[in-house]
């Protein structure tokens, strides 16, 4: 990989570890500056390091340069310039990914899209809004205050909406409101050669369409390997009349997850149902200053009319009681609910605090709801046998859960055990007709598992799509496929 720094009187000095990159010249960098201005192009080592990794354990692979476009026209011109020179291109949003999706493993140019941060078009009567890639989910919901609407897809991190589309993000509300796949109506995408594509037609925002191939669905979850998502039109939802949250402990993992399955089978329209095992609850108590029982626990939330929520709570309470669950700890006022869910959202940092100085690797699998009790019980046994610290937290309402595995990056034996455990967990999910990733994506670490999951024919079809849209393999190369 080539490393760059600015030097007085000599432009760029190149430090090479391997074959030289023919495209990496002063002239090339000058062509990028001509599009966005000198202040919006950086080859400084510290900037490149910041853009060479996400929150995963994958090693940092810095790009050779970072650019900050302000408009879709600039993204198009920058992409065309890179394409003509054969320079790899890596989209960058907030950097909150967990599968190494922003690592520049072949070097290249990182496109930091955070300064494209406008809410472009709000249609309250149609429940839609169009946003640029720098708009985060919290910023959008702040913008929507007073409109009676909100955007419910909540992966925990304050990720950008277009980044969430690129990774097909999910989160705590998916059981009721769906994932990004169900909430994206149209995308504006800059293709690798600079052409601008509107996946559903320019400015179109119908709730559904049967016109042609589902190009929007193709780019949702593409992880930056097919193009730059520069605008997303998403569904909005009405803020419910009443919201009630609750916490309930259980004597065992199986009892908690059995309750989840039975709540869903009963058709109760629960908004959130999150599982935290006893290790995760202990970590959350210490990190967030709480005093919940350290046992397998469900965090639940109910949305609807006042009467409807009351009925949901009563029906859920009966199911919980039949599985020896504790009495609900309630939170109805906004402040109390925010405090309760803050503990859940801080689970990643609470887990890190369990083992100061260690890094964390968050696994991510999803299975059919009926197999959830079995896979969680087997996973707990595997954790104990592997002698690993791995709190479990999950969006169990849609069969998705994570082990946050603590790992000493200097301990090769422990790193090996973490890797082997993660692969066993993924293959256990595949054996139960599930998927190796429910929301984090494939990125760098799960490419072989993707092949095992979908098979050679499906994988070769994906490869042909990639080759058709990105024949030079310049868009985020080395990811997914």
TrEMBL record:
<comment type="similarity">
    <text>Belongs to the FAD-binding oxidoreductase/transferase type 4 family.</text>
</comment>
<keyword id="KW-0809">Transit peptide</keyword>
<dbReference type="InterPro" id="IPR006094">
    <property type="entry name" value="Oxid_FAD_bind_N"/>
</dbReference>
<dbReference type="InterPro" id="IPR036318">
    <property type="entry name" value="FAD-bd_PCMH-like_sf"/>
</dbReference>
<keyword id="KW-0496">Mitochondrion</keyword>
<dbReference type="InterPro" id="IPR004113">
    <property type="entry name" value="FAD-bd_oxidored_4_C"/>
</dbReference>
<dbReference type="GO" id="GO:1903457">
    <property type="term" value="P:lactate catabolic process"/>
</dbReference>
<dbReference type="InterPro" id="IPR016166">
    <property type="entry name" value="FAD-bd_PCMH"/>
</dbReference>
<dbReference type="InterPro" id="IPR016171">
    <property type="entry name" value="Vanillyl_alc_oxidase_C-sub2"/>
</dbReference>
<protein>
    <recommendedName>
        <fullName>Probable D-lactate dehydrogenase, mitochondrial</fullName>
        <ecNumber>1.1.2.4</ecNumber>
    </recommendedName>
</protein>
<keyword id="KW-0274">FAD</keyword>
<keyword id="KW-0560">Oxidoreductase</keyword>
<comment type="function">
    <text>Involved in D-lactate, but not L-lactate catabolic process.</text>
</comment>
<dbReference type="GO" id="GO:0071949">
    <property type="term" value="F:FAD binding"/>
</dbReference>
<dbReference type="GO" id="GO:0008720">
    <property type="term" value="F:D-lactate dehydrogenase (NAD+) activity"/>
</dbReference>
<keyword id="KW-0007">Acetylation</keyword>
<comment type="subunit">
    <text>Interacts with CSRP3.</text>
</comment>
<dbReference type="InterPro" id="IPR016164">
    <property type="entry name" value="FAD-linked_Oxase-like_C"/>
</dbReference>
<dbReference type="Pfam" id="PF02913">
    <property type="entry name" value="FAD-oxidase_C"/>
</dbReference>
<dbReference type="InterPro" id="IPR016169">
    <property type="entry name" value="FAD-bd_PCMH_sub2"/>
</dbReference>
<dbReference type="Pfam" id="PF01565">
    <property type="entry name" value="FAD_binding_4"/>
</dbReference>
<dbReference type="GO" id="GO:0005739">
    <property type="term" value="C:mitochondrion"/>
</dbReference>
<dbReference type="GO" id="GO:0004458">
    <property type="term" value="F:D-lactate dehydrogenase (cytochrome) activity"/>
</dbReference>
<feature type="domain" description="FAD-binding PCMH-type">
    <location>
        <begin position="59"/>
        <end position="239"/>
    </location>
</feature>
<keyword id="KW-0285">Flavoprotein</keyword>
